[in-house]
Amino acid sequence: MHVSGMILYKFVLRGCIFLSLITALPLFAAEKPTQLKNLILLIGDGMGPQQIGLLQTYAKLAPNSIYKGRLTAIESLFNHGQTGLSLTHPEDKIVVDSACSATQLATGHISGSEMIGLDAQGRAVRTILEQAKSQGRKVGLVSDTRITHATPAAFAAHQPHRSLETEIAAQMLQQNMDVLLSGGISYWLPVSVNDDEKLQQHYAQLTGGHIKIKSKRTDDQDLLAEAMAMGYSTVFDKHSLATAKDKVLGLFAYAGMSDGIRNSQEKHHPQRQEPTLAEMTHKALDLLAESESGFFLMVEGGQIDWAGHGNDASALLHEMIKFDEAVQVVYDWSRDREDTVVVLTADHETGGFGFSYNRFNVPQGKALATEAFKNRLFQPNFNFCDRTVLDKIYQQKASFYNIIKTFDALPEAQQTPLDLARLLEEKTGFPITSAEAAKVLATEPNHHRVPGHKYLDAAVFPKVDDFESFYVYGKDIRGDLIGRVLAKHQCTVWATGTHTATPVTVTAMGIQTLADQVKGITSHAELGEMMMFWLDNY
Ligand code: MG
Ligand code: ZN
């Protein structure tokens, strides 16, 4: 399916209406039409309306909200920009993955599941980043996952599958981009590093010693050395990032960067080595804004999705806060500029999250001194969720993923349901019984086993009572089961361990005639096409 004729007609038509308006009105006739210099695309991976709702609910309603009456950056962007909805589906299916969705945003072509930078037939198609670069703009990618992960990869690589990160890293380097900041050094080291202690020491020294040195490449290409030969400043911690100039390749972690909970705990620590997503975004803007002919920057909050897969409300909240800090940097940088458009969207929703009323802890009656309640107590039938729960969700000390990791590292004799219950209480602050913890540890045969499959090969899976086919990530499902045990305490529900097809919001701020074009209901391929049209025509 291709709709470009219609789309171009739509954009041109809107542009013409604008032009005829300014020629018809002498008051505006002298004004020079605004030029689009910079385009900044902010992608919350897995950030559906529900995830934005969680951040806003916390920010506005938590008794001890860290926002203290301040607007979130996302709210500021919504208030100053225009918003529409977008369907994210791939070419021939209903639900999308991050690779396909980002490809559609990046290329304006509808694509196939798990493809990187290809149209639905598998042809390599130009990305908005490649377009911007060919126009002489500077280009950059920032993500808190790893730079070769699906979302950033779709802007700068062309591969039949998102898992081909060895090839993706090599292609990304060939693009000769100006700014690349993320985690995932493992795909930039030659595979021989795994058996060569001297080489390990060399890279440990080069990177400052705080990053695990191990290659996940399938070949011996040394992309770090190649990057240096191409004139990149290669940086591995926040201090060297701060002073870096010109072309910068920053790889700050072995795989994904710090998660949201850790970001909240450590962002003010003076010894922190990793830059935050906000710091990377800030630096990217500094470097790219040196360009006379403008820039294209994509910033991803990539772990919102991971928290959603984990059905972990606290992790999700902290990921939203982490992403919001980066959005704040972009909002502050761009709000008074007339040459920049900022687009905030998501690739899909993850988890089907919600706060939900229930029959656990139904409220006691309360007297109200008003005429209406003269003869009865104020006593709703159900538990509509105390706001104090928002502070408790914020205070969780580690993600479910990391709690399970801690549990798995205990001596085997201490891996009982009682041990897990204690650990969960300590980390989450909610009362958990041994029987509930036992449900997290229960297993069953994998009813949908696919031998040799990356995720579905295991004969035994954690036991999910219902909707089990929507929980696909093997042992990680134990995290989702923690989410179920905590649900009644947190007043939270989850629909799935994967993605939903809920339409996502698209908000654009900046040059008004362009920002206005995101209104209505669109699709991600159309949205990508629209942004590429802007770069060519405004
Ligand atoms: Mg992503
Ligand atoms: Zn996902």
Total beta strands: 16
Terminal CA distance: 26 Å
Mean pLDDT: 94
CATH architecture label of the largest domain: 3-Layer(aba) Sandwich
Integer-rounded radius of gyration: 24 Å
Structure ligands: magnesium ion, zinc ion
**Corresponding CATH superfamily of the largest domain:** Alkaline Phosphatase, subunit A
Biggest sheet strand order reads: 5-6-4-3-7-1-8-15-2-16
What is the name of the CATH class of the largest domain?
A: Alpha Beta
Q: What proportion strand? A: 5-15%
- Give the tally of structural domains: 2
- Helix content percent band: 40-55%
Low-confidence runs = 1-6, 13-30
Structural shape: globular
Q: Main beta sheet, described?
A: 10 strands, mixed
Number of DSSP helices?
Answer: 22
Structure description:
The protein has helices at 4-24, 26-29, 49-61, 73-80, 98-107, 128-134, 150-156, 165-174, 197-207, 223-229, 238-243, 260-266, 277-288, 304-309, 313-334, 388-395, 400-408, 417-428, 434-441, 477-490, 512-515, 524-537, and strands spanning 38-44, 82-87, 138-146, 179-183, 233-235, 248-251, 295-301, 340-346, 349-350, 354-355, 443-445, 460-462, 492-493, 499-500, 504-510, 520-523. Mean pLDDT is 94; it is low at 1-6 and 13-30. The protein contains 22 helices and 16 strands. Strands 5-6-4-3-7-1-8-15-2-16 form a ten-stranded mixed β-sheet, with helices on both faces. The two termini are 26 Å apart. The chain folds into two domains: 35-352 and 499-537, Alkaline Phosphatase, subunit A (3-Layer(aba) Sandwich), CATH 3.40.720; 354-368 and 379-493, Non-ribosomal Peptide Synthetase Peptidyl Carrier Protein, Chain A (Orthogonal Bundle), CATH 1.10.1200.140. 41% of the residues lie in helices and 14% in strands. The radius of gyration is 24 Å and the shape is globular. The protein is an alpha/beta fold.
